[in-house]
Write a structure and sequence with these properties.
By secondary structure, the protein is mostly helical. It has one domain (9-75). Helices cover 46% and strands 4% of the residues. It is built from four helices and two strands. The protein has helices at residues 9-21, 35-44, 54-63, 80-89, and strands at 28-29, 49-50. Strands 1-2 form a two-stranded parallel sheet. Strand 1 (28-29), helix 2 (35-44) and strand 2 (49-50) form a beta-alpha-beta unit. The protein is globular and about 30 Å long.
Length: 93
């Protein structure tokens, strides 16, 4: 998940929906544009892999054998493009 840290309405909606659907497990996140808040929020939400930025998350997840399968972008709409472009440049296949 990128964006949607504590206090962000849509982030909570997406986290709840993922649990209800039971098809995805939230294992990695960059929840805020503020690195310290991002790391603290992931810890608070018990997300095992916390990142200081979405660029770091995209880069590091692409290197993992157990990398993410999908990313939920829950930033404000005008910020979606940069996140989607960053993740699309990484080699996830």
């Amino acid at each position: 998940m990128v964006g949607g840290g504590p206090g962000a309405f849509i982030g909570a909606v997406h986290r709840t929906a993922a649990r209800l659907d039971d098809r995805f497990e939230l294992v990695a996140a960059a929840l805020s544009s503020d690195p310290e808040k991002s790391l603290a929020a992931a810890k608070e939400l018990h997300i095992p892999r916390a990142y200081a930025s979405f660029a770091e998350m995209a880069r590091e997840e692409a290197r993992r054998d157990d990398r993410i399968d999908a990313v939920a972008i829950v930033t404000p709409n005008h910020l979606h493009h940069a996140v989607a472009e960053c993740f699309s440049r990484q080699e996830f296949m």
